Structures are given as C-alpha cells and as structure tokens.
Amino acid sequence: MILSFRWYGHDDPVTLEKIRQIPVVRGIVSALYDVPVGDVWPLEKIQALKDSVEAKGFRLSAVESIPVHEHIKLGLEDCGRLTENYCQSVRNMGRAGIPVLCYNFMPVFDWTRSSLAMELPDGSNCLAYADEEVLKMDLSKGTRGLPGWSTGYDAGELRRLTDAYRELDTEGLWTNLERFLKKVVPAAQEAGVKMGIHPDDPPWPIFGLPRIIRDEASIDRLLKIADAPHNGLSFCTGSLGVSPDNDIPKMVRKYSAAGRIHFAHIRNVTVSGPHGFNETAHPTECGSLDIAEIVRACVETGFDGVMRPDHGRMIWNETGRPGYGLYDRALGAMYLAGLWEAFERDRKPEDSRGTLSIS
Question: Which of 164, 314, 322, 349 has the fewest CB atoms within 10 Å, counting from its CB?
Fold first, then answer.
C-alpha cells in the first residue's frame, strides 16, 4: 500500500515540506491545475509536476484528476475529439510513469455540500450536507460562490447544462460513460495507467440531475462495461458510506479481492438522517463508518494500491482549503498507518518489527 497525501500544487499552503514531516506518507496525489478542461495534458508539464514531487522525496502515486469534459458526459458532437484528447493525456501520464488516474462522471457538480464549516461540539469545523439546504440554493446566478465545487459556470451556462442533462436522463448518461470507457480503457491499458472512477458524492441525484455511480449494483455495471483490470475504482468510503444501502467493508472486500480498487479514499462521516451527513475525524468511534474494519478488509485482501486520508476537519485554528487542511489529515494518515500495521502483524505474526508494507 502506498500511503499518500493530496497536494494542490505550489499554491497550496500545505506544502510538500510540511507533508514530508508526516511519518510513513510516501506518495503525493496531485494534478495540473492550469490546463483547460478538454485540452491534452502536455507530457512536459506532467513530467515537471512529477519532478517537483520527487525532489522532495516522494513519488507521484496518482493523478486526481483529469476532469472529464461535460460534452463527453452529454455525448455532444465534439465528444469524439475530446475523448481522444483524454486518451492522449492518459498516454502522457503513462510515459511519465504515473500509475493511477482518479476521475469522475458526475454531471455539472462535483462533490457537493451545504456547508463548508459546520461547527462540531469540540470546536472544530467540517464539511456537511443537508438535502433541504442544498435544494434551497439559488442557481439563477450560476455556481460561483456556492459551496462544494470548483468549476464556475455563469447563469446561462449552468441553465444550458442542467437542461441538457435532464433531457439526457440516467440511461443516456450510462450510454455516454460506456462510449468513453471503451475508448479510454484500452489507451490506459496500453499506457500502464489504472483508471479509478470516483463514486458520486453524494450518491443520489441533486438538482434533478442523474447520478449513476452510487452503489454495488452500479459499480458492477461499470466494471462489466470494460472488464479489464485497468478499469477500476477510486473507492471513497465517505461518498458511498453516507447511503445506508452500502455495506462498505463488504464492498471493499469484494472489489479489492478482485483487484479493482486502485485508489482508496478513507474518511469517516456521521449520517444524520436521510440525505444528511457531516464529515468527522477518521477514527471509527467518531462517525458512522467502521474504518478499522475497512482497513482490515484492505489488508486481508492484499490491497497494494494508493491510499490517502480524505477530507479532514479544520482543527487548532487552521484556515485554508475546506476539507484539505494539514492537521486533521495528518492525524488521519497516522491512524490509517497504525491500523495497517496492527492488522498486518495479526496476519503475519511471524514477521519482525519494521516490516510494515507501506511503501
């Protein structure tokens, strides 16, 4: 397992120098943030990113992410050209020796929250979602200034996109995902890049838009579209875990044993009701998910991919990018490493101290 940490590039206040002080974190997960969506990621820029990471003693363990253009998801006239651009970006990743790509197929809105700073009883704050609050959001002025997503659309752009997706419907989105995967997965396989789709966050429709990567049945359908090892998952425990229909440890065992989890995002959530939750500290006792059992499932199925602590709280008066401060994610990394070592020793009691397989 490659224990890794998300880094948003040279403008990130959580610098590589700070991340380097977290024991057993060996990998960095990052992306190119200055390439327009739909353009080819140049090899020289990918290589420069990798070189900057390696210069600080890390490996660039995964790219998160190369965004999928909305025209690909909608199946518009230029989707063929945009998909070929995506394939070329994946090929360039392979040439640079980066093994894992995280991506998603969520229409318009990426991860969505109603609050970026819900205060918890201990004084920390966290990301939270309440369906009734999300549905009250005024989209008439576009997405700028709303919590949860990075892509900005003005009112006209947003209206055109949402109208197009509502006309497309769920099966239409599946058709377009299938077209995309049948082009991109062979390119990824040839390049030696493992594709890991991130589940929808949250895993239910919002604003009347379809969401399709939501549960075990939809993941099974996804994996059958291109039944190859390079078509896999960025398995996010927090995204899937807010739905009571999803048995997360069971799903981890199933897909990890099949070799289809290439990237694991581990975070805990407190489910507050139907379509309501808040994020919390990583330990099992802090939320609704059995993080210990999830990590045990990874160890016992031989998971050897990339793992990172996902969104953290803001603690100790830290300010910065919501969900991506240093301190709580560092605590999460150490918690995951401790669980991994304990379960690995249970599995191989004859091994001596110092054989932790976090590489």
Answer: 349
